[in-house]
TrEMBL record:
Region named Disordered: 1-24
Compositional bias annotation for Polar residues: 14-24
Full protein name: Pyrrolo-quinoline quinone repeat domain-containing protein
The organism's place on the tree of life at top rank: Eukaryota
Length: 207
């Protein structure tokens, strides 16, 4: 059901960041197409590529879909006051999943966006805090996993500023809460992976 060229940051479910495709070595003709970023938006996430070689670019508040020639197919935008998408989105079974958090507020939103039309399938508002590091959401086995923490306030930890220490699991079909798992350490730039056996792997800042 995956069948995408690049469905999440790191590519595969194992996050091996490799591809069987050979990149061109002659760049004398320049790029095939360029998105000029006319609004000068921050882009901190990996582009996503579906089975038709359509490219999805996520900024802090917008997601755009381009065809393989660079033509804009649709644009989606976070609602006013819903914060920024600081976690990298993911493609799964015809849906693009995204996550936004409002800085210094105990509010976050999960989104499911139709890959074909750009229409929002569902949105869930949650009273949780999610730190603004370079985390990635993960969708596996019908479950959307997002980075959160089990406390709202900042508190000192070894290594500096507090961050996410919790995985929150939502149903990929409707966004309903399934479970939460709080680790005993901070997970900087959380990027879950799986060997495909029904488990997920992660590391904390202590290694």
């Amino acid at each position: 059901p995956e069948g995408y060229y690049w469905r999440r940051r790191g590519g595969s479910s194992e996050r091996v960041t490799s591809t069987p495709h050979v990149a061109p070595s002659n760049f004398s003709q320049g790029p095939a197409w360029v998105w000029p970023n006319p609004l000068d938006e921050q882009v901190r996430h990996s582009p996503l590529i579906d089975a038709q070689k359509h490219v999805y670019i996520a900024t802090a508040v917008r997601i755009r879909k381009f065809d393989s020639d660079g033509a804009l197919l649709w644009q989606w935008e976070c609602g006013y006051g819903e914060g920024k998408m600081t976690a990298s989105p993911a493609l799964y079974n015809g849906t693009l999943y995204a996550w936004s958090t409002a800085r210094h507020r105990v509010i976050a939103h999960a989104y499911a966006i139709d890959m074909e039309t750009g229409r929002q399938r569902w949105k869930v508002r949650m009273a949780v805090f999610s730190h603004e590091d370079a985390s990635s959401i993960f969708v596996y086995n019908g479950t959307l996993l997002v980075p959160t923490r089990d406390h709202a306030e900042d508190r000192p930890v070894v290594g500096g500023e507090d961050g996410n220490n919790q995985i929150t699991a939502l149903s990929a079909s409707d966004g309903s809460l399934l479970w939460e798992y709080a680790a005993d350490d901070i997970m900087w730039n959380m990027m879950l992976s799986t060997p495909g056996d029904g488990t997920v792997l992660f590391s904390s800042q202590c290694g």
